[in-house]
Design goal:
This protein is 34% helix and 14% strand. With 388 residues, the chain is an alpha/beta fold. It binds pyridoxal-5'-phosphate.
């Protein structure tokens, strides 16, 4: 058993190391190329979507997804206050106005409040599935265009459908804390070809051309383009106000190998969650355990524990001192963070539950590196420390 059981931890071994070493030994050109292409196709297919665009992080994927929506500056976008900071940062940095809803018992955006906003004319939403728990399917029908943040929920299903393919664009993270890892990395998936071309351009300096770095004339018409009557190399035509958010080729290599392990990892996460749940269910006088919408089968990101009484900080310190790492529920209530000082936003319903979660919730690990013996240690330590 480890001295500190991590809340989040990556798992890759010889297979991944060898593949990356082999790549480095045989090429000098290590930016995104054919392996990233393959991973994009395989990942999108896995989610039942036609198109994937890999990025250098989940946050980058959210940024380009919001940009690809084409929402005019000042557009009000429904989003929960209990979220990850870069979801809101993407909206703010691109000139949108976040309209914050509170969380529900599931830790996710309150579906009734989302419905209310949609009835009041809000047509845009950015919605994360927090901690692996899926949002009810109905929320995706309330808005014209949605960005789905599936960073915490790869492998989760609701009524048999995988999350990560509900949004107009759905975003994923391969940071080591997540279900599969490429070191840093992210992915947008979409079913819409125009949105896909925009996303591809946005990660690649805004180019119109879809050749990967190091490749020329994939379309056979490189010299058949003009700008304002001037013949111009297609590679140098700027279609969008883009960024450079491409991943390294190694990320594509790692991603393909990790994707093969997703089912195994998701099973372990579910097993670990069930183990902890069964052990903690007798403590419901002290803690509130996570609840799920009907039809949900989460691929858990972590185990959220809401402390009904007691001081969360001292409980967390005691738990960590006994070798169980704890983490906070992401932003808690993002509106209370310094990043929101002076930033235009709206809070139509109050955010009491998000604030309560921010004050009283902590996360412990159920990740796929945690053994049954370690699960038992987590359960024992948590039960003893919350009962003091
Ligand atoms: C829900 C959620 N969204 C977005 C992100 C950002 O992903 P990345 O760290 O790859 O930028 C995270 C990261 O942990 C996350 O948990």
């Amino acid at each position: 058993m480890r001295d500190l059981i991590p809340c989040y931890a990556p798992d890759f071994g010889q297979e991944e190391r060898m593949a990356v070493m082999q790549h480095l030994a045989t090429t000098q050109f290590i930016t995104a190329g054919p392996w990233v292409d393959k991973f994009e196709r395989e990942f999108a297919k896995r989610l039942g979507r036609q198109y994937g665009v890999m990025t250098n992080s989940g946050s980058s994927s959210i940024l380009i997804a919001v940009k690809a929506m084409g929402w005019p500056a000042g557009t009000e976008v429904a989003t929960p206050a209990l979220t990850f900071p870069t979801d809101v940062a993407a909206l703010v940095n691109l000139g949108m106005v976040p309209v914050f809803v509170d969380c529900f018992d599931t830790y996710n955006a309150d579906a009734n409040q989302l419905y209310d906003l949609s009835q009041k004319g809000i047509k845009a939403a950015l919605l994360p599935h927090m901690f692996g728990i899926p949002l009810p399917e109905v929320v995706w029908t309330l808005f014209d265009k949605t960005v789905e943040d599936n960073c915490d929920a790869l492998g989760t299903t609701i009524n048999g459908r995988m999350t990560g393919a509900f949004g107009t664009v759905s975003c994923h993270s391969f940071y080591p804390a997540h279900h599969i890892t490429t070191g840093e990395g992210g992915m947008c998936v979409t079913a819409n070809h125009d949105v896909y071309s925009t996303l591809f351009s946005l990660v690649s300096w805004g180019r119109d051309c879809y050749c990967r770095p190091g490749y020329d004339d994939s379309c056979g018409n490189r010299w058949g383009h003009k700008i304002s009557g001037i013949d111009y190399d297609h590679k140098y035509i700027a279609k969008t106000c883009g960024f450079n958010l491409k991943p390294l080729e190694m990320c594509g290599i790692l991603g393909r190998l990790q994707l093969n392990k997703l089912d195994k990892y998701a099973e372990i996460r579910k097993r670990n969650f069930e183990y902890l749940y069964k052990r903690l269910v007798d403590c419901e006088d002290v803690v509130k355990l996570p609840v799920m919408p009907s039809g949900a089968d989460p691929s858990w990101f972590a185990f959220p524990i809401f402390l009904k009484k007691g001081d969360r900080t001292s409980v967390c310190k005691r738990i960590e001192a006994r070798g169980v790492q704890v983490r906070m529920p992401m932003a808690g209530n993002i509106t209370l963070h310094p990043m929101m000082d002076g930033v235009p936003h709206r809070v139509p319903f109050g955010l009491d539950r998000s604030t309560e979660v921010m004050r009283q919730t902590f996360l412990v690990g159920v990740n796929h590196t945690i053994t049954e013996e370690e699960c038992e240690h987590i359960a024992k330590v948590v039960i003893e420390e919350i009962s003091i």
